[in-house]
Amino acid sequence: MDLSDLFLIIPFLVMFVLGLLVPAIIVLSYSRFGAGSALIVGVFIIDALSMGYGGVSLWFNLFYPDIVLGLIALVVGLRLVFAPDFPKKNRAWMLFCALICVSLLTGLVSYGSLAGVQVRPYFYFMVAGSYAMSFAMDERRLRLVFNALALTALVFICLSAYRWVVYYTPISSLLPPGGTYNVDGPIRVIKSGETLVIAQVLVAGFFYVGASQGFTAARLFSPVLFGMVVVLQHRSVWLSALVGVLTRLLLGRSKSGSTLSQVFLLVFIVAVTAVPLVVSDKLSGLAQQVEGSAARALAGQDTTGERLSSWHEIVKKWYGAGVRSIVIGQSFGSDTSRYVQDSRGETRKINYTAHNLYVQTLFNTGLLGLLAFLAATWYVVGGLYRICRDGRGGTEAEVLLVLMVMQLAYYVPYGTDYLQSFLFGIALSYVAGKNAVLRGAGDAKQRRGALV
Predict the structure, then answer these.
(1) Which stretches does DSSP call E strand in 298-393?
(2) What is the block-wise mean pLDDT of the chain (452 residues), using blocks of 10 residues?
(3) What is the rounded distance in angstroms from the CA atom of residue 355 to the CA atom of residue 41?
C-alpha cells in the first residue's frame, strides 16, 4: 500500500470512527451524568480558547457548541421519553422551552436561516439546562460539578495570564486577527461569562471551603481569583460577585467559620490584592483603569447608559407589534434594530441583542415565555431558600443558592449562558429531589396516622 492509497482510505476511516463515536457519546451521556457534564463543560472551555470562532465550515458554519449540544439535545429527547430516573419535568421550564421552539419554527418560515442564527444562544441555554435537570442530584454529583467549576476557573485564569503576556509583550505572531482579544478593551482578554465563572468560584470557595476539593483550593488562592475578577474589568461580574457575597452574609450561617471572621478575612484579601495596585508605579495605571471603569458605570456612562436606552426601545418594539407579540413574542429572525443614545448623547442605530436575558426573552417568547422562565426560577431559588431555612440540605444547598442569585444578577446586563443554564438545571433537579423526599415523609406520616 502506497501513500496515495492511504489518503484514499483516511476519509472512510474517519467516517467509520465517527459512526462508532457518535452513538457511544449518546449512550454514555444518556446513562452517565459525568459524561454529558464533561462534554458541556469541555465545549465551554474550548469555545473560550477559540474565542467563539472554532468549528467546521460546510455549506454553513457549524461551531463546536452546535456539534456537542446538538448531540446532547438528542440525549435530552431520549431521556425525556424513556428515562425512568428523570426527577421532575418542571412544567414552567417545559413551557419556556416549547415557546422557544415555537418562536424558532415561525421564524424559519418567515426569515429562513436568520432565525437559526438568532436562536443559537437560546438553543444552547435550553439544552444544557434540560440535560442537567434530567438526572437526580446527590452530594457526589454536586461535588463533581463544583470541582469541574473550579477547574474551569483555573483554565480561564491561565488563559488570561497567557493572553496578557502575548498582548503586552507583545508577541505579534500569537495575537488574534485585529490585534486584541476584545474590542471593549485590550485588558478584557476573556468574555464576561468566563469571568463570571472565576467570580463564582471565588465566592463559593471563600465561604464554602468544604463543599469540594476545588473550592478548598480556591480558598487558598482567593487573592489571585479576586485580582483576576477586578483586573478583567467586567463590571457586570463585579455586581454579580457583590450580590453573591451579600446573599451569603444574609443567609447568616456557615460550616467553615463565623460570619464575622469571614468578613475580616474578606477585607484582608481585598487589601492584599488592592494595595499593590495603588502603591506600585508599574501597576498604578491599571488601578486608574479600574477606578475609572467603576466611576463610569456609576455615572451611567460607557455601555451602561446605552443599554438602558436599548432595553427601553426593544420593549417598545415588542409591545407595539400587537397581541401575538405581547403573548408569545416575535419570532427568532425578527428585526431587532433600534435607535439609542450613546454616552456622548448622539443617536445611532444598533441591531445587536438586548444584552439582558429578561428583555430578550420577553421579545422572542413574549409575556408567556418570560413568566414561564421566572416561574421556573422561583421554583429553584425559593426551593433552595426553604431547604436552607429548614436545614434539609447541607452546604451544597447554600452553594447552589449563591450561584443561582449570582447568575440572576448577571442576566440583567447580559443574555443567555449555557454553562449557567447547566448549573440552573442542576439546582432545579436538586430542589425536586429534596421536595420529593419531603412529600414522601409527609405521606408516610399520614399513613401511620391513619393506621393509628
Answers:
(1) 338-341, 347-350
(2) 51 58 90 96 95 73 90 96 88 97 95 92 97 95 96 97 92 85 83 96 92 93 92 90 89 54 52 46 46 48 69 90 93 86 70 88 96 97 92 90 95 93 97 85 56 50
(3) 23
